[in-house]
Amino acid sequence: MGTTTPPRTLAEALRARGDESLAGLLRARPDLLNPVPNDITQLATRAGTRASVVRALEHLDRFALQTAEALAVAPDPAPYGILLSLLTGDGLDDGEQRDDVGAAVTAALPGALATLREQALVWGEDERLRLVRTARELLAPSPQHPSPTGLGPTVAEATAGMSPGRLQEILTTAGLHATHDPVSAVAALSALFTDRTRMAELLDTAPVEALSVLDRLVWGPPYGEVTPNPTPPVKWLRDRGLLLPVSTRTVVLPREAALHLRAGRAHRVPEPAPPVVTAAAERDPQAVDRAAAGQAFTALSTVEELLKLWNGGGPAILRAGGLSVRELKRTATALDVTEPIAAFWVELAYAAGLLATDGESDERYAPTPASDEWLDLSAQHRWTHLATAWLPATRVPGLVGGQDAKGRALSALGPELDRSAAPDVRRRVLALFAELPPGTAPDPETLLRRLRWERPLRGSSPSGEGTDLRSRLALWTLNEAELLGITGRGALSSQARALLEEGEETAATFLAPLLPEPLDHVLLQADLTAVAPGPLERPLAETLSVLADVESKGGATVYRFTPGSVRRALDAGQAAADLHAFLAAHSRTPVPQPLSYLIDDVARRHGHLRIGAASAYVRCDDEAVLNEILADRRSTGLRLRRLAPTVLASQADPGSLLEALREMGYAPAAESAEGDVLITRAGARRTPPRTPPTPVPEGPPVPDDTLLGAAVRAIRAGDTAATVIRKDPAEGGPSSTTSSGSLPRTTSAETLATVQAAAMTGTAVWIGYVNAEGAASQRVIAPVRVEGGFVTAYDHTADEVRTFALHRITGVAELAEDGKG
Description:
Helices cover 45% and strands 13% of the residues. By secondary structure, it is an alpha+beta fold. It has a five-stranded mixed beta sheet with strand order 18-19-17-16-20, with helices on one face. A five-stranded antiparallel beta sheet has the order 26-25-24-23-27. The chain has a four-stranded antiparallel beta sheet with strand order 12-13-15-14. Helix 5 packs across helix 8.
């Protein structure tokens, strides 16, 4: 596909590329594939659209972007030497030592230019480099859109509307020969500003104050405001064209003058190499792994506690979606964490598919059926499940508590928390961690500088969070990775490194020896507490959490037995004998007598009162107890009345009556309509089966090699059909479909004869075809068989064998000899 002449357009430059180069373009800019372009010309047109160019510029690193910015202010086309001088300077900048920078730029420029060429942002030979027009419009200076380089317009652009008389005055004052030709005047002024010697002589005569004005404008912005009666320094600069008028109150420093003052540099500081991520601390890798494993275990415990907290049905959903501030605060208090951290755990459980909405009329959050499967996994596999859900998640908990672009509050589990850049930032941050030696904690500031160098245009967000969302995402990633146990003491753990490089099973193998083994016992104490010296086996932990209340957490968990907690266990269907047996079986110390007495005392009174639905009633075989309740002034609000010696009725509902009597110190039990005691176990409310939330993709996905190969073949085939040389059926001479654009017209008999001849000789022909929907197209086909009113042929345009109805072919023409193949 090579060519001997330089390309005149981007389409010609793309047409001259090999298949691998075209595939590289489509891989770097997958938005160009949606849908697959018909031919090279359409591909070039799509590559030059504003949305596509903006997306491509956003994926450039700092130096590639600086190269594009330099080309935007260079002549069009620009030789390679001019581009290099714009990035390195002319070497005459007051004796500054810039040799190292110049050498680095010289070495890095070919790579940056290759990146721009690969992404079709730059085309042409080295002597005629062209930046695509849309990119030049985005990066070139204008009053509405200042250049990133800080340079203003050229002398020709700035003087476009200036009167010839004013130009003559500037030339005369600057010591140049006056000319009545505006073009010559502009050229003379430009030549003065680009001549190092004459420009230096002119500036030597400038007042010191005038040089100060230039110093303020030289690195941008190049625009300044002036009064109708400017100060003498400004007037001196304006009279000599060093400041040119943009409006009645605005002047600009022309680009040629600014480049002289900058010693030819488009950028103050070229950045050809990425900043080095430095180490903040060197730690023992084993200590890092242990710290990360400890935090991983804490993460598992926190998520388990969250699931238990919402086990009977979690908080209600706001009308706009998500959790209310009150519910988030309540959840944070229950988990003993701050509200931002609580938002992270809630969002993580949601991303992992462990929490979802139940879909009921009174819609609430609740654990999913998948949460039960997750709880049955080993600790190391539970952790890998959470970590692999966190890495690709586009929901950003750090935004909770902020506001969207319309000033509305962002809530946890709300609909406005997706940021498509989050997965890329997370993986890039962890990749930079992984590049450091094991046990090394990177300096966050240098890490942020590296991220900004890699994607300098990706900082802003259309959602209104600020001008550096990428840096904020990176900082949130550092905090979340530490909470989740991806990092320990600021360094990447071995299990996380294995997760990133080798997968979940390898990571689980690394983590398993570092996690504590679940225990099957507790230590009962005489003060009605039990100490769990480590994590407990799940059945033991679940039963103990019903029988006792958690008093404190840490390396050891302390449970406290109270009348309320014992009654909770009895309500769940346990008998006093069951509780005694459970404690004796799982305690390494003898069961203290006060605890045995507590269980027996609560069990003796438990169920002595029975409450059912009348709307509610109280039943008790001991009339004295009912008399005591009626005499208690605290029962006035229940509006009790005696129906029988052993039965009281109430207008309150059974649940309210049950809680009121418990608050009065009694131990009532609820009973069914048949008179049986109702067993109230810990809630097990589950949502219907739910899939985890799908991450919001950042643009189209990167196509695989198979799709790329097929797309390149289709584009090549379409290009062949669009540019092939064929014979005009009317005149017999060669013509091109790209110039005529009209469908060939032949009679049915001529069409049939030509197609049959082509099938016999194995040659290709050019046809016009109208499909069943009425869409007309031009195709190059190689007929194989003609029968039954249909032509079976290889379609070069689609790169496949197709069948065409003869009556839908508008006409046919033979290809010219030099158009075959």
